[in-house]
Amino acid sequence: MSDVTALASALLDACLAQGIMIATAESCTGGMIIAALTDIAGSSAVVDRGFITYSNEAKMEMLGVSEATLKVHGAVSRETALEMSAGALAHSRASLALAVTGVAGPGGGSAEKPVGLVWFGVARKGAPVEAEFRIFEDKGRDFIRRETVRTALGLGLRAVGQAGFAGP
């Protein structure tokens, strides 16, 4: 069993035990997080939906990310990750939402936002929305996206109170 599968399974089990539904809002991963969850039989008991919001328009239309946020801070930012996760929570039946937005490469990076920078948003009903970032080593697009999925699942576990995930 891969570490991604193990993390996804642990998150599903924890959510099932707590009666928590999950939603995702994904940009740079293009649906890989929701796929990791729904690859596991029985996931329909806790997975509500996944929003694939690759474009700024999709972020605004599907999640309610403000145009001002995108203009001022950009799609890859703390502010956008916060709004994406809060929007996924607001536009679903979920009580836990995980969001990712980043620069997977090989191009698109800058000095301020290098290839490998990913912002994660975590929203939980009744709790403040949180965001944090990672800068993954630029070992290629696939590596960055896989590490993003792994980290997002781990942050989901942390959000539901499962100790033991320290992150990369």
TrEMBL record:
State the Gene Ontology terms under molecular function: nicotinamide-nucleotide amidase activity
* Xref: Pfam families: CinA (PF02464)
Ranges for domain CinA C-terminal = 6-155
The lineage's top-level taxon is Bacteria
Q: Which UniProt keywords apply?
A: Hydrolase
Q: What is its EC number?
A: 3.5.1.42
Indicate the enzyme's highest-level EC class: hydrolase
Q: Which InterPro entries match?
A: CinA-like_C, CinA_C
Write the protein's name: Nicotinamide-nucleotide amidase
The organism's taxonomy opens as: Bacteria, Pseudomonadati, Pseudomonadota, Alphaproteobacteria, Hyphomicrobiales
